[in-house]
Design brief:
Helix 1 (14-30) crosses helix 5. The chain is α/β, with parallel strands linked by helices and 154 residues long. Strands 3-2-1-4-5-6 form a six-stranded parallel β-sheet, sandwiched between helices. The chain has helices at residues 14-30, 45-48, 66-80, 92-99, 135-143, and strands at 5-9, 35-41, 56-60, 84-87, 105-109, 120-122. The two termini are 27 Å apart. Strand 2 (35-41), helix 2 (45-48) and strand 3 form a beta-alpha-beta unit.
Length: 154
């Protein structure tokens, strides 16, 4: 399985995008020559503009022509032939993008309604028996098999 190109999907709000940047950092540590792209909602793109480890930021306009833009985005995603797509969200639309991305490996949380179509379904755990899990720790579980169990800082 090649790991030369990654897409991280996080189309929620700005704080969620900030926390998901820890995945960019960790993937870059393990795959410094890989192309890493990030898909986010329109309005948050300024946050990742000129990020040194990102090749491209894909933008989904959810406010205007949401479904049309979703299908156009799927075409865009499929054309890039990602090796790995990592979905940080639990919503059907991002599950659709992940499942039909054409990627060799698709990873997401098991609470995504389309996770049964992913190669790897990670339990969305809110806490362990010892303590609550921070979102950075929970997100790290998505790439643990590609990297290690220690989360990086955003």
């Amino acid at each position: 399985m090649n790991r030369n190109s990654f897409l991280i999907i996080q189309t929620a709000f700005i704080g969620d995008v900030v926390l998901a940047t820890a995945l960019i950092e960790k993937l870059h540590q393990y795959y410094p020559d890989a192309a890493i792209d990030f898909l986010l909602r329109k309005g948050n793109e300024g946050l990742l503009k000129a990020h040194p480890y990102l090749r491209e930021v894909l933008i989904w306009d959810k406010k205007k022509d949401k479904q049309k833009n979703l299908f156009n985005l799927l075409k865009q995603v499929r054309s890039r032939k990602y090796d790995v797509v990592i979905n940080v969200q639990r919503f059907a639309a991002t599950g659709f993008l992940t499942a039909f991305s054409g990627a060799g490996m698709t990873i997401g949380f098991n609470k995504n309604p389309l996770s049964f179509l992913f190669n790897s379904r990670i339990p969305h755990t809110v806490s362990t028996s010892e303590r609550p899990l921070h979102e950075i720790q929970r997100n790290q579980k998505l790439i643990e098999k590609l990297t290690d169990a220690l989360p990086e800082k955003p």
